[in-house]
Design goal:
about 600 residues, alpha+beta, 18 helices, 11 strands, about 55% helix, about 10% strand
Length: about 600
Amino acid sequence: MPVYNPPIRDMQFVLHELLDVAEEFKALPKHAETDADTINAVLEEGGKFASEVIFPLNISGDTQGCTLNRDTHEVKAPDGFKAAYAQYVAGGWPSLSCDPQFGGQGLPFVVNQCFYEMLNSSNQAWTMYPGLSHGAYEALHAHGTAEQKALYLPKLTSGEWTGTMCLTEPHCGTDLGLLRSKAEPQADGTYRISGQKIFISAGEHDLAPNIVHLVLARLPDAPPGNKGISLFLVPKFKVAADGIMGARNGIYCGGLEHKMGIHGNATCQMVLDEAVGTLVGQPNKGLAAMFVMMNAARLGVGNQSLGLTEVAYQNALAYAKDRVQMRSLTGVKAPGKPADPIIVHPDVRRMLMTAKAYAEGGRALACYCALLLDKEFNHPDEAVRQESAELVALLTPIVKAFTTDNAWEATSACMQVFGGHGYIKEWGMEQHVRDARINMIYEGTNTIQSLDLLGRKVLGNQGASLQKFGKQIEKLVKAEMANEAMAEFIKPLADLGQKLTQLTGEVGMKAMSNADEVGAAAVDYLRVVGHLVLAYFWARSAQIALKKLAEAEEEAQRPDPFYQAKLQTARFYFTRLMPETSSLMRRIRAGSDVLMDTEAALA
């Protein structure tokens, strides 16, 4: 049967040894008292909740799915989901990183990041119910009126109510400038909103008594396109000034999508029939307010795939150690058995190590971005806040697209380790593959993320943001260039950095005369940058592991297997995964003509 063991040791390595978060927090007045012991205690308890409460509901939730009562428009989540959510709320987990002003515990984002990774490993579909509430909380916290904050933030913080984001319509996905939902101003300052939204995750359910929808719509005099979109707060049940829930609002679920995966989460077709809402932020400036939620969601989607990569790896590893099949090519390894465990076979190890390298590298990147958010919002130095914001903006499309692409590869490889059993539902592996596939699509497809990275984040400022991250690489290269033990990591890292700089210039020059060059290069370009970023974190991880192993040798102590494993995984990444960049760069240099000059082929 499937298993999940929270990767607490590796999280501690990333937080305390790689990122040294406790030291970083000392510069943040809000988090100056948050120490390693506090973080470790939270992660230990969070891991227990994830593995003991919601992981057992993962397969059953996928099997049962959600049900819609078409008469009442109410949606019932799978059995056990509601009780688990009540336990989640009772434990205070929704408030972990929320503002104490609204009842939050005020812990750093990076702690919440690790907790949510464990939730996603355990049960992505369940985690999407509370997960979307964080985005709604962030958008209201940043752009809500004082009244909206007072009425809704305490409820979202405690988890008593949940939240959603309602963007997509049947005729438009990413191109929100095409949306048609309308908002009519009322004499009392509210708005009557009508329209239809689709693909709304957790849009209707029975886990919480009220759902706070953040809805994009157009005012009557709105200009066309993106410049005419406003954001509105539309609760499932109307809320009086004293916070008491009132009558049912005119927003309801008209249908549930039948999907490839995440069956335990209600993906809803939402109908707005003169629903009463209030404006969030300024008229016609809704995208600016919604982008707070969208960026949080993009980081969250990367976290979902990180969680799936980890749990798929754990189960494939356990199976590979137990399943016997054929003999090792180099001789019998298990003489007492009729065949050797399949973990002796090179290609099985390739698949396992691919998942392990992407999980641990992705964890380092995700935690680094969460730490940047902590610094962006809490550092007393404006320059540090601005640089942190710039770096997290650069890395957000990489977290979303690179991590989700890698999870698709990793979960598929882990299913392959199981052979025919991987295709059978009871082992749980095929569910991870199905669940992972949506993460490459929603919150902006990975192609959209790639265009955002290359077109806006790199070429848009002549590579300035990328150069800022590059300075961290240069610092590491300079510090370790003379260290022979680090040569296998430092030389390819430095080489890729130089090649990327040259490649970026070439693409930029081509794009000046033909914008299709950006579209042709973007997806491959993001993967090259993603590998550069992960290579940096793997080089730093190897640096720490080598130091720890050397210290153990000097003191005649037994080497810690954790650091041996970290070093071996770094070597695998640099020799078996990072070389993908060579073919990617060759494809980028092929240009757009071979793609666009295809009228006959696509006729």
